[in-house]
Amino acid sequence: MRNSSQNRLTWATIVFAFIGSVIMYGALAHMLQQSSERTVSPGLEAMRLPVTLLGIACLVASVLWTQLRLVVHGEYASTVGDIPAPKQFITHTVIALAFAEACAVFGLLLFFLGASWTDFLLFALPSIAVMVLFVLPKGNAYWSVWESRQEE
Questions:
Q1: Model-level pTM?
Q2: CB 30, CB 117: distance < 8 Å
Q3: Among the listed ranges 35-44, 92-101, 103-112, which one has the minimum average pLDDT value?
Q4: Which residue of 7, 64, 136, 152 has the smallest Cβ count within 10 Å?
Q5: From CA 96, how far away is CA 66, in angstroms rounded?
């Protein structure tokens, strides 16, 4: 049971670190927006559409990965063997989170090219939303099932 608690704590730390990193990107962008005159790169408008499409693709990839890999197959089955081991589940979670965070990174890229902080938020908020609304609940379901089966 102790090892299960450590794995769950590791998983939660990773999830909240990813969420926190997006928040830190926002704080950085906000401070830079406030601190100085920013110049707009001539390539900003040319980059806006491809970067936006990449951000959307990353969010879709994160949601799909979450739905396919973070599913607790056989939640009501009687054996632990029908769900991934904690280390495998944590690995799948990191991949889903990385896809979601990539969207925020694309928003940060546009910000550094001269886009506004509000433009950055249009990438960061959906990134956090995918993490909180898709990845977090799947993880909580997984750990509940895993821990209940360990007690059996």
A1: 0.91
A2: yes
A3: 35-44
A4: 152
A5: 6
